[in-house]
Amino acid sequence: MDNSIIQSEYVFTKEANCQDCYRCLKVCPVKAIKVKDGQAYIIEERCIHCNICVLNCAQNAISFKDDKDKFYELLKLKGQRKFVVSVAPAYSSICAEWERARFPSAMRRIGFDFVVGTSVAANVVAQKSMEIVNNNPDKSYISSICPTVINYIEKYRPDLIDNLLPIASPYIVHAKYLKEKFGDDTIIVHINSCIAQKMEIQRPEFSNLIDLVLSFAELKMIFEEQDISLKNCEPSTFDDLPVGNSRMFQFVGGLSAVAGVKREFLETNLLAISGYQDIKNSFDFIKQKNGIFIEPLFCYKGCINGPGVHIKNNIFEKNTEIIEYIKTRKSKPVEEDPLKNIDVSRTFDRGKTLPKQTFSPEQIRAVLAKTGDSEPANRQNCFSCGYPTCSEQAIAVLENMAQVEMCIPHMRRFAENKATKIIESSPYGIVTLNEHYEIISMNQAFKKFFVITNSAIGKPISIIMDPEPFYTLNNSNLDIFDTIIKHDKYGIICHEIIYKLEDDNSFVGMFLNVTKNVTDESKLDKLREQILEQAQELLAQQVNMAIGISKILGDNTAYSEALLEKLIKYTQGDKSQANKNDSNLLNDSNSLNQEWLWDTNTSI
Fold first, then answer.
1. With DSSP H G I counted as helix, E B as strand and the rest as coil, what are the percentages for the chain, rounded to 5?
2. What's the pLDDT tens digit per position in 165-224?
């Protein structure tokens, strides 16, 4: 991996699984993903921990850090320190109705001494938030209970930091309360659907409050590893109850609902929204208008749909089930809220803002020129690379976050041009015919073999050669037709391979000129015949010598020796070399044929 790539500590890619599809980059709202050599990397400096990439990666190449090992380490301290769990109300979304009553018992079987819902702290957060909003009617505010929203504003919208409510999220406030209740050495584990909270608890102002944040997905795995089944747990309740409608804070608009604010249908000053695009648009809106209160939750439909929840049912179905469940739960009166005097304040970091690089139009055009998109009219803005526009992708290339090769139309054009060059420069003659056996295209080698020009395009192949091989293939069940044909008119012999493109009902003919090979083979055959004649002549001489050796020995010795010397030369010396050449020639021919067939099959 490139040493300059600093991946997020909690969200990262498994390189072996990454398939070079750019899907993660397409859904990343802040383009915090760097692509290098086809691999995606989540860059910590840019990441806002929304985990949308995790949810959308079809190859499961992106995941968040598994903290189960840390949980087991903390579990070893049980008995020495109190072991407490704060569970977000979204737990009800992963449980069937009969399982919810057994959930607290399952948590105790894991080892927790005190099991309580995070919603216990929601009321005080909601009341304090609305108090600030109501006391400053001319100022616009943004709720700060979503850590991803905080990350986004601190890194990308520092102009809105002053609009953030300086109030901590319920799970942070709940941890403060639990520390006060049980002591500073209490081990507190928070379980929810949000992965961003894993990073948020590391902020200096929240240090020593929460020891570990686990997702419901991790909890499910712990259940399996501990062999804990809800059906084997007895029904029980949490060790504390929330007040009022506190369990509603996990929904979009839940904060104001918990505070008792009744929204009117035509309400314009209270915006309860979810999802990046609506958040971005609403933030732009409050820069133009005062007196607006925005309740943003980055996950679509709120915390019940966070990345740390394994759900299968429809989001609206789940939403309805949870609301119906909440209606049946008991709560304390708001007046009895034990957290009403707790400190709920928090601060924000103005030092996280990313410096914005600027590039000149010339620099951007220089990158676009590499993809053939230097002119605005040529820019497709197809989004296939993950960036909405070609110019944005060019800027990402200049920032070293993207590569030119990510442009799919450019790579397609490059591949097509490359294929065209290969075909045109091939020593094999290549011709394509339509269903009527008319010439569609042909390369230079084919034109040279058959002494034709482009004027033959659109005309029947029969004007050049006998079309019988094409007819034979079309009227048979063969996938490919392979033959050797002598074209007397052109003085060549060709090894011909013909196949059909079923998709568009066309034919491809590939021609290898083997005239020289065949001619050399004929010369070898003639040489072999001469040697055979000489050997037979020698044999006859030897017979005659046997009959009258005494008479003819002297006369024929010189002749016989010369003939034998010639024969030995051919059979032992030159013939050996001839055989070697012959063998090499045949091997070369076979090799060419095999390579041809391989290329043909690959093309098919």
1. 50, 15, 35
2. 999 999 999 999 999 999 999 999 999 999 899 999 999 999 889 999 999 989 999 999
- Contact 325/92 with Cβ under 8 angstroms? yes
560: its two tokens: 């016989």
- Coil, strand or helix: which one is 11? strand
Residue 375 neighbours by CB distance under 10 Å = 10
Helix axes 515-547, 549-568, angle to 10 degrees: 160
Task: Give backbone dihedrals phi and psi of 567, rounded to 5 degrees, phi first.
Answer: -65, -45
Mean pLDDT calculated for residue range 83-103: 88
Which helix (H) or strand (E) covers residue 402, if one does?
Answer: none
CB distance 149 to 167 below 8 Å = no
Helix 147-156 × helix 276-286 angle, to 10°? 60
Q: Strand pairing partners for 486?
A: 493
Q: Any idea what DSSP says for residue 475?
A: T
Distance separating the N- and C-terminal Cα atoms of the chain: 37
> How far is residue 431's CA from residue 11's CA, in Å, rounded to a whole number?
53
Helix ranges, 230-275 (H)? 254-258
pLDDT band at 523 (very low <50, low <70, confident <90, very high): low
Going across the sheet that includes 270-274, the strands are 141-142, 293-297, 270-274
Q: Is the pLDDT of residue 126 over 60?
A: yes
Q: Between 474 and 503, name the one with better pLDDT.
A: 474
In this predicted structure, what is the pLDDT of residue 64?
Answer: 84
- pTM: predicted TM-score of the whole model, two decimal places: 0.72
- The conformation of residue 508, written as its DSSP 8-state character, comes to E
Q: What percent of the chain has pLDDT over 90?
A: 54
For residues 352 and 424, what is the distance between their CA atoms, to the nearest angstrom?
A: 56
**CA 256 to CA 248: how far, in whole Å?**
9
pLDDT computed for residue 592 by the predictor = 31
Band of residue 545 on the pLDDT scale cut at 50, 70, 90:
low
Question: Is residue 137 classed as helix, strand or coil in its secondary structure?
Answer: coil
Q: Where does 44-198 show beta strands of DSSP type E?
A: 62-64, 83-87, 114-117, 141-142, 187-192
Does residue 499 sit in helix, strand or coil?
Answer: strand
Cα separation, 229 vs 376, in Å, equals 61
Q: What is the pLDDT of residue 525?
A: 62
15: its two tokens: 């390189």
d(CA 378, CA 397): 18
**Confidence check: pLDDT of 602 > 80:** no
Cα-Cα-Cα-Cα dihedral of 44, 50, 51, 52, to 10°?
-120
Amino acid identity of residue 30, one-letter, is V
Question: What is the rounded distance in angstroms from the CA atom of residue 291 to the CA atom of residue 289?
Answer: 7
Question: How far is 24 from 61, CA to CA, in rounded Å?
Answer: 10
SS (H, E, C) 40-61: EEEECCCCCCCCHHHHHCCCCC
Closest listed residue to residue 452, CA positions, set 500, 498, 511, 504 = 511
- Sequence-distant (6+) residues with CB within 8 A of 153 are 142, 160, 161, 164, 283, 348
Q: Which residue has the tokens 């005062």?
A: 290
Q: Is a pLDDT exceeding 90 seen at residue 371?
A: no
Q: How many CB atoms are closer than 10 A to CB 1?
A: 10
Backbone phi, then psi, for 534, in 5-degree steps? Answer: -65, -40
Task: With a cut of 90, say whether residue 280 has pLDDT above it.
Answer: yes
373 versus 528: the higher-pLDDT residue is: 373
* pLDDT in the model for residue 503: 78
